[in-house]
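This part of the workshop introduces the protein records we will be handling. A record pairs a protein's sequence with a compact description of its fold. As an example, a complete record with its sequence and its structure tokens follows.

_____
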Amino acid sequence: MKIRLATNEDLNGILEIVQDAINLLKQNNVNQWQNGYPNRDVFIKDIENQTLYVLCDNSIIVGFCNISPLPDPSYKVIYEGSWLTDVEEYVVIHRLAVRKENYHCNCARTLIEFAYKIAKENHKISIRVDTHHDNIPMNRLLQKMGFIKCGIIHLIGYSDAEKARVAYEKII
């Protein structure tokens, strides 16, 4: 498998995976990605910013995630805890999803490990990520990969009524 920057030609494959994720989250009663987010416009912006990566198995996109070296405004304030680091020298992982045929194939783990590489290349000291408290598979994966639950953040500019997310950080 290979990871590369996403292009506009990847959008249909990415949106297929988004639909897989929406269906899985709904099936598991997780109120995340249920109100039109993320959408094509979000991914076009990610592609323009060169922060969207796809994991490919030959020519098939099996997963994607946004890995940004820029601080996230939603992470400025954290409730019920604190970040492991107090500087804005982190990489953020957002919008990570895997094609349903590739669940349980370590694709999400591979993408998160790739974020370590991006963090090191950008001279960052940690990786931050957030997820819905009911997204048990993602919470478990992050904990298995050594991420520490730091508290709760509230998403800024997010379409869902429920904006609280569990915030994690891992020092690299």
In short: The radius of gyration is 15 Å. The first strand starts at residue 2 and ends at 5. The mean pLDDT is 93.
